[in-house]
Amino acid sequence: MALVERDVALTLLVERLGWPVKLVRWRAARALRGLLQSEKWGERACAALLDWLSSRRLESEVASALSVLLVTDPAARPSFDAVVGSITWPSLLADLLLERCYGPGHVMGGWDRDLGSGPINLVLDVIHGLH
């Protein structure tokens, strides 16, 4: 298989982490774990996974990528800094998975964004006839 075809196949495999069918996501994760742990494919699989992770905007997708790392041998995982540098939407779930993968204290933070006025204000507005 040509180099370009391999990269396309790897990209397609990583994209399957976002498929709606659970079995497809599970099989893709297993295959990626195997590639990450492979001497021949590890570096390229890692680059593809981190690239995919960097374009994720949903917490569930970030969790899918981090879950692959969770079941990957620690020696085959990318560095903590590389993973954190690829997460554009931090979350509590991402921090929990990062800490599980890389050990206590290895968290990204930054997920405690201002959520504006919470639901209690909406309820009070409705009670007072503002909505």
In DSSP terms, counting alpha (H) and pi (I) runs of 4 or more, how many helices?
Answer: 7
Helix percentage: 55-70%
Query: N- to C-terminal separation?
Result: 62 Å
- Classify the beta-strand content into a percent band: under 5%
Shape: globular
**Tell me about the biggest sheet?**
none
On the 0 to 100 scale, the average pLDDT is 87
Radius of gyration: 18 Å
- Class computed from helices, strands and strand pairing: mainly alpha
Low-pLDDT residue spans: none
Q: List how many beta strands DSSP finds.
A: 0
Order of helices and strands: HHHHHHH
3D architecture notes:
The relative contact order is 0.10. The chain is an all-alpha fold and 131 residues long. The chain is 61% helix and 0% strand. The longest helix has 15 residues, at 22-36. The model has no long low-confidence stretch (mean pLDDT 87). Helix 1 packs across helix 3 and helix 2 (22-36) packs across helix 4. It has helices at 3-15, 22-36, 42-54, 59-70, 80-86, 92-102, 119-127. It is built from seven helices and no strands. It is globular and about 40 Å long.
Lay out the secondary structure:
Layout: H1 3-15, H2 22-36, H3 42-54, H4 59-70, H5 80-86, H6 92-102, H7 119-127
Helix pairs in contact: 1-3, 2-3, 2-4, 3-5, 4-6
